[in-house]
């Protein structure tokens, strides 16, 4: 049974890696084939167990693939039609989930009950932003909004977060904002509470969060305490997540299985006490069944309060399976329970297999089961308790309990080492790093968080929920919980500064990850398994496999998808150059930490030979600080003054001026703009001072332009003329009408043009006239809003190939505006959202 359920999950996993959904004919053929396999399996029966199991596994994998495909098609069918993107719509619906407060407004899910605009279809659930709302919407409230929506579309990069997949899993099939344009209908709250189950659960969670925030105030780790109580991680700072990931304790800073199990155990204990005092219960239920039922119900209630994430789902399903087995007096192995949980989680949420939490949760539990020979922790140590090891009455307390303590400590150490080893392949694949200090960090964090911080936080939350005279107790309990976690964070900060506290690796190929997983499982096998040490050798390819790099004489240019901004990475056989760092989106959210640094780490890059920040505009310099703090920087070239706070810690900072020549390995770099005289003109714009650089390696050439305007383009053409010719060019100022003059394009004569711009740019980028100029010059235009990230591989023989992530690494859920060939959103003057720059 375990293998069949695992095969079902594998079929689901396979579907999530498809570029498009299979057609109905293919699904019908697969259904018939799976039925045939099931029939053959039944015919073979018990006489031929091995072939029967193989056929059953193949049928289960097909059924998993078919089920996930049908669920995906059902979700994708509820889509927003392209022709109504950006148009004003009147919607009536209910605020859902927990609204998230940001710097510029609030974001929330909205369940659409009625579309008041005639003839318009809107998905059942949409994500809305409300910029500077006068009133704070709350869950379970019914509102009427005038909104402008667009299809799900996010940035798409190698090693980046896939927001479109996240929206699909959350059931959000469109996103947009509450319109504040002149003449728009003002928002109206129609009902303060809607009596629906899901809405009421959301309201309870919102009430609890508000009480927790009030009790915790502005404490540094208030977001962590809220996450431990109810799973809402929105308040945890990105810098804290970096610390938790590097020390390997991220699994503790959320609703973990241990927390839910603890709640279930307390409820089961209380149920046992009630059962002993209630004869009518004793007549209907045995003690074991009463405890199992009550513990499961308590776990379900807490999981709903915690937001029903993958770890919560996994733990609840496992507890429910154990409860059912106890009630029905069935014997199930640990792996059967784990496989049942995985299969049921995938039935509930087919996209769970795409979440890192799914694999980390099940990987950790599977590692523990392997290390303990398939039994839960704590079993198998009873021999130290009874007459088999008599302890003299006069012995001290330590001597009396010494064997039990030593056995428990030994098992805990073995479990921690097993989890650390078992998760190495997953952390390499998901985060491109391993943490050698993780066992030591977890040895401190697990008992502290599980047995002190979390219980105090839960007791404080209970007191906060009761309110009134219990508010003082809530403040004290939550404060104590926070103080303990702050102490832990100080220890972790010290540990992460140790040499080799964490080690970054390039993303290994899929076969190396599979080999590492098999090797970890082999090494964790029970005692007696042959050559367990050999499993470690199977993990070596994932640890030593080098990232693919350009060969001698070759130059790679990667235009990352950062929305309305610019971020490019050039690579040679020996060096890496970063040109611009994308936009800053919030106080602690920018393209440097979200896109550029993860990409560089996935490529095994920890040193940037040259960082160029073309000018001060936030859509070009917003991620500079994150790149400087995360990478070793050789030198910085910029038009930004060296004493600017963005340049702190950057090392040598050089001002870019026309005529400069640099040699970076075999790469020749020429600075074409700005002219030195521009720095003396106080009224010169930051765009006019944009650094314009030409890179040349053999016969390969690339021109990067920042936001240089047409006036400065004319100066560059006058100074260099036909010497500007380049195979690949990045369009100045995102394809704005104020740049990309005909004379400049004629001088550069590009074969390829990259335009970095956000989807449905509110600035109207790229302008249709600019696109026409490039096409008239014979250049192929590659737009980041249409293709996501793009990589050009320029060889020494002047040949060029391009890789487009949204096209060449497609997934069935990705929006494909290139195929829909929509016009640029801003070209007709429509409103596209509040300013973000």
Topology:
Elements: H1 2-15, H2 24-44, H3 49-77, E1 88-101, E2 105-115, E3 125-131, E4 142-150, H4 163-170, E5 175-178, E6 188-191, H5 197-216, H6 222-230, H7 238-247, H8 257-276, H9 279-284, H10 287-305, H11 310-328, H12 334-348, H13 356-371, H14 397-422, H15 424-431, E7 433-434, H16 438-466, H17 471-496, E8 503-504, H18 510-523, H19 534-538, H20 540-544, E9 555-559, E10 567-571, E11 576-581, E12 584-586, E13 589-590, H21 591-602, E14 607-613, H22 618-621, H23 624-630, E15 632-638, E16 653-655, E17 661-664, E18 667-673, E19 692-697, E20 700-704, H24 710-720, E21 728-730, H25 742-748, E22 752-755, H26 768-776, E23 780-783, H27 784-787, E24 790-794, E25 800-804, H28 805-808, H29 817-820
Parallel strand pairs: 3-5, 11-14, 14-15, 15-16, 20-21, 21-22, 22-23
Antiparallel strand pairs: 1-2, 1-4, 2-3, 4-5, 4-6, 7-8, 9-10, 9-24, 10-11, 12-13, 17-18, 18-19, 19-20, 24-25
Helix pairs in contact: 1-3, 1-12, 2-3, 5-6, 5-16, 6-16, 7-17, 8-10, 8-11, 10-11, 11-12, 12-13, 13-14, 14-16, 15-18, 16-17, 21-23
Mean pLDDT: 87
CATH superfamily of the domain at 555-822: Ribonuclease Z/Hydroxyacylglutathione hydrolase-like
Total helical elements: 29
> How would you name the oligomeric state of the polypeptide chains in this document?
single chain
Structural class estimated from helices and strands:
alpha/beta
Report the biggest beta sheet as strand number plus sense, adding barrel if it closes.
8 strands, mixed
Report strand order across the widest sheet: 16-15-14-11-10-9-24-25
| Assigned CATH architecture of the domain at 555-822 | 4-Layer Sandwich
Low-confidence stretches: 378-395, 822-837
Number of strand elements: 25
What level of helicity do the residues show?
40-55%
The geometry reads as globular
- How widely separated are the two ends? 56 Å
Which value, in Å, is the CA radius of gyration?
A: 30 Å
CATH class of the domain at 555-822 equals Alpha Beta
CATH topology grouping of the domain at 555-822: Metallo-beta-lactamase, Chain A
Q: How much of the sequence is in beta strands?
A: 15-25%
């Amino acid at each position: 049974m375990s293998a069949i359920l695992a095969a079902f999950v594998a079929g689901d996993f396979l579907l999530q890696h498809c570029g498009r959904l299979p057609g109905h004919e293919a699904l019908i053929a697969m259904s018939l084939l799976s039925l045939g396999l099931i029939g053959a399996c039944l015919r073979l029966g018990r006489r031929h167990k091995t072939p029967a199991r193989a056929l059953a596994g193949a049928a289960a994998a097909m059924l998993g693939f078919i089920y996930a495909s049908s669920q995906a098609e059902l979700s994708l069918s509820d889509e927003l039609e392209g022709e109504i993107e950006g148009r004003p719509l009147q919607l009536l619906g209910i605020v859902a989930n927990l609204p998230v407060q940001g710097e510029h407004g609030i974001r929330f899910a909205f369940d659409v009950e009625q579309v008041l605009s005639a003839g318009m279809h809107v998905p059942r659930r949409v994500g809305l932003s409300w910029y500077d709302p006068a009133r704070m919407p709350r869950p379970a409230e019914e509102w009427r909004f005038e909104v402008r929506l667009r299809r799900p579309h996010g940035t798409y990069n190698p090693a980046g977060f896939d927001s479109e997949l996240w929206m699909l899993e959350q059931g959000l099939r469109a996103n947009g904002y509450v319109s504040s344009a002149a003449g728009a209908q003002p928002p109206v709250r129609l009902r303060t509470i809607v009596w629906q189950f899901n809405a009421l659960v959301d309201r309870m969670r919102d009430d609890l969060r508000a009480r927790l925030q009030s009790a915790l105030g502005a404490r540094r780790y208030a977001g962590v305490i809220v996450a431990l109580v109810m799973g809402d991680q929105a308040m945890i700072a990105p810098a804290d997540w970096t610390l938790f990931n590097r020390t390997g304790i991220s699994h503790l800073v959320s609703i973990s299985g241990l927390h839910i199990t603890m709640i279930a155990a307390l409820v089961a204990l209380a149920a046992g006490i009630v059962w002993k005092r209630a004869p009518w219960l004793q007549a209907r239920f045995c003690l074991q069944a009463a405890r199992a039922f009550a513990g499961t119900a308590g776990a379900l209630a807490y999981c709903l309060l915690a937001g029903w994430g993958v770890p919560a789902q996994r733990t609840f399903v496992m507890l429910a399976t154990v409860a059912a087995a106890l009630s029905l007096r069935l014997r199930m192995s640990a792996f059967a329970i784990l496989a049942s949980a995985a299969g049921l989680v995938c039935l509930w949420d087919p996209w769970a297999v795409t979440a890192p939490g799914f694999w980390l949760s099940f990987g950790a539990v599977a590692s523990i089961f392997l290390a303990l020979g398939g039994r839960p922790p704590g079993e198998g140590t009873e021999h130290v308790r009874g007459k088999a090891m008599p302890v003299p009455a006069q012995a001290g307390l330590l001597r009396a309990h010494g064997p039990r303590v030593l056995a428990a400590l030994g098992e805990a150490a073995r479990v921690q080492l097993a989890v650390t080893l078992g998760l190495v392949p997953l952390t390499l694949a998901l985060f491109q790093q391993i943490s050698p200090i993780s066992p030591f960090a977890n040895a401190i964090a697990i008992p502290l968080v599980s047995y002190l911080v979390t219980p105090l936080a839960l007791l404080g939350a209970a007191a906060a929920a009761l309110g009134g005279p219990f508010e003082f107790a809530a403040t004290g309990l939550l404060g104590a919980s926070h103080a303990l976690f702050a102490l832990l964070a100080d220890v972790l900060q010290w540990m992460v500064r140790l040499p080799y506290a964490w080690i970054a690796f390039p993303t290994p190929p899929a076969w190396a990850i599979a080999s590492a997983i098999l090797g970890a499982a082999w090494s964790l096998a029970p005692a007696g398994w042959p050559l367990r040490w050999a499993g470690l050798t199977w993990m070596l390819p994932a640890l030593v496999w080098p990232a693919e790099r350009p060969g001698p004489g070759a130059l790679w240019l990667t235009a990352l998808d950062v929305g309305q901004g610019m971020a490019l990475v050039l690579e040679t056989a020996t060096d890496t150059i970063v040109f611009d760092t994308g936009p800053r989106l919030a106080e602690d959210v920018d393209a440097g930490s979200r896109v550029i640094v993860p990409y560089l780490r996935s490529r095994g890059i920890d040193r940037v030979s040259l960082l160029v920040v073309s000018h001060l505009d936030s859509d070009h310099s917003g991620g500079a600080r994150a790149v400087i703090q995360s990478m070793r920087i050789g030198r910085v070239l910029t038009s930004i003054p060296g004493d600017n706070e963005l340049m702190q810690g950057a090392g040598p900072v050089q001002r870019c001026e026309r005529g400069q020549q640099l040699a970076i390995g075999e790469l020749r770099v020429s600075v074409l703009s700005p002219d030195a005289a521009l720095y003396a003109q106080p009224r010169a714009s930051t765009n006019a001072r944009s650094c314009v650089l030409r890179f040349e390696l053999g016969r390969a050439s690339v021109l990067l332009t920042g936001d240089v305007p047409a006036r400065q383009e004319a100066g560059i053409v006058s100074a260099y003329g036909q010497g500007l010719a380049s195979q690949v060019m990045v369009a100045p100022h995102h394809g704005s009408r104020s740049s990309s003059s005909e004379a400049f394009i004629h001088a550069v004569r590009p074969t390829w043009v990259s335009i970095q711009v956000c989807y449905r740019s509110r600035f109207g980028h790229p302008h249709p006239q600019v696109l026409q100029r490039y096409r008239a010059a014979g250049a192929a235009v590659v737009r980041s809003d249409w293709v996501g990230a793009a990589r050009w591989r320029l060889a020494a023989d002047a040949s060029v190939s391009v890789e487009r992530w949204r096209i060449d690494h497609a997934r069935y859920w990705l929006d494909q505006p290139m195929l829909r060939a929509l016009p640029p959103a801003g070209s007709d003057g429509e409103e596209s959202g509040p300013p973000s720059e």
